[in-house]
Specification:
single chain, elongated, 284 residues, OB fold (Dihydrolipoamide Acetyltransferase, E2P), 3 domains, nucleic acid binding
Length: 284
Amino acid sequence: ARVLQANKGGLMLQVDAVVGFLPVSQLNPDHYPRVPGGDKNRILEHLRQFVGSDLKVRVFDVNSDEEKLILSEKAVWEDEQKNILDSYKIGDIVEGEISALTPFGAFMKFGDGLEGLIHISEIVWQRIDHPKDILKIGDQVKAQIIDLNRSKIYLSLKRLVEDPWKSVKDRYRVGETVEGTIHKVEPFGLMVKLDEEIHGLAHISDLSDKSMGDQRTFLDQFKVGETRRFEIISMEPAEHRLGLRLEGVVGGGKRVARRVAKADEPAPEEEKAVPESGAAEENT
């Protein structure tokens, strides 16, 4: 079908004697607009490059009220990829190239035109703020297939290395005082790096014995990159959790509702965000 024009929602195509609409969400992965911030003007600019070209599409739905066909290029692509996907199974290790980074994960191209998602929680065992902290576009990596869902492929990098939390009790113990580097200041406390593999949480209620007043002002005294001494007050290796208390604090300061973050737990709203150089929505 010939592409007649582009708009911010997709493409208009000539299918025999009628005009059909191909939504952005139904483009195949190679044609999908990977635009920083999901900027609609840049998405439109990307789509305009297809005007005048021919695409292989399938009728996805019929809008009888508007006498319009809804088309899908992705459905054709999925059928073409089925035989290729059938040659893979969960647990297989594949090698490929990082093709895009998003706040919720990284995309990796491998095999014969396949692309899979490495969720941010599957990149490393530690909690990270963004995949770009670890990866960059063009990196050659090995990953394990952890799920296959039609054309969607889910991959993991961290499962190819030993989980450092399995041996955390050999390295640290509850009641021990250790040095830690403040990795991130959150409204609920401090994310603290004890070493490159083990991170812990010092909840805001474990940072002072005194009433702290305004929490934001109180937390301003702690700086990312600063080294402080903390007492280990809890360890849950299976849950990847380690609780810390600032040295000298006995407890009993202003208590607030605890939300104990896992060391590898993604930050809130990550999956609602859009790619840095990736798709305007998650799409594999």
